[in-house]
Design brief:
alpha/beta, 4-stranded mixed β-sheet, 60s Ribosomal Protein L30, Chain: A
């Protein structure tokens, strides 16, 4: 089907999905770029695909073709590739994820940068992390910038959003998951700890760090550094910690 007007309901819906509230209500999000769209797993439902080139074939029941001019209205990239999919979010069971016999979990506390969250999700995929738990007031994992920066990893790791930190920490305690906060003022280094079976790591806000309500309920650890630099990027620190923890948990 060829769409000629930017007033078409399909185009209007795609534009509306730039808003988190709409994504949450409809349980839909946008994936843009040929490579990213082609890598969507078959167990994720694609609602429809929008294309500018009829020679591009995407395995989807509903393919809509539009002009490059209209595509620019729905794209948030500088040089659009003319391929975009609207995808249904997956639903995961938090109890099933936490009930694993062993594993590593990541908790995100008020993180704001899409690149940081995207990198953390890619790290989680690389190290087979059991799940990512994102607090209220954090950036949305299904915003287009985060989805794009994960380069497909968003489909590989269970993500839970809008988590109440107090309830979540208690839930982890109930499931015997030892939780550590990455905190510059900690006395112990990640490399000092013997991790066993089930471990969670908390990553905080880029400038403010981890909230006091979380810190008072978990142990704190920090990354060992060898120069006078005072801190690391949130996603870099998370990646180092996850690597160190995963070496012990998964060996």
């Amino acid at each position: 089907m060829f769409i000629e007007s930017a007033d078409n309901k399909i185009i209007k819906q795609i534009i509306s999905l730039s808003d988190k509230k709409t994504r949450d209500e409809l349980k839909l999000f946008v994936v843009e770029g040929k490579k990213q769209v082609c890598e969507i797993p078959k167990d994720w439902k694609i609602e429809y695909v929008v294309l500018t080139d009829k020679n591009i074939k995407i395995d989807c029941a509903k393919n809509y073709y539009i002009t490059e001019k209209i595509f620019k209205k729905i794209s948030d990239t500088t040089t659009p590739q003319g391929v975009l999919a609207v995808v249904q979010k997956q639903t995961y069971s938090i109890d099933n994820v936490l009930s694993a016999q062993k594993g590593v979990f990541i908790i995100i506390d008020t993180l704001q940068d899409p690149g940081n969250l995207g990198t953390i999700i890619r790290t989680a995929h690389a190290y087979n992390i059991n799940g990512i738990f994102i607090s209220k007031n954090s950036i949305d994992a299904f915003s287009s910038k985060v989805v794009r920066s994960t380069m497909g990893s968003i489909f590989k790791v269970p993500v839970f959003q809008e988590c109440d930190m107090d309830l979540l920490i208690n839930k982890f305690k109930e499931n015997k998951i030892k939780t550590y906060a990455l905190e510059l003022r900690a006395d112990k280094f990640v490399s000092d700890i013997k991790f066993e079976n089930k471990v969670a790591i908390v990553v905080g806000n880029e400038s403010k760090g981890i909230s006091d309500t979380v810190l008072k309920n978990v142990d704190s650890i920090k990354i060992k550094m060898f120069t006078e630099i005072d801190s690391l990027n949130a996603s870099v620190a998370c990646s180092i910690a996850v690597y160190e923890i995963s070496k012990q948990i998964n060996c």
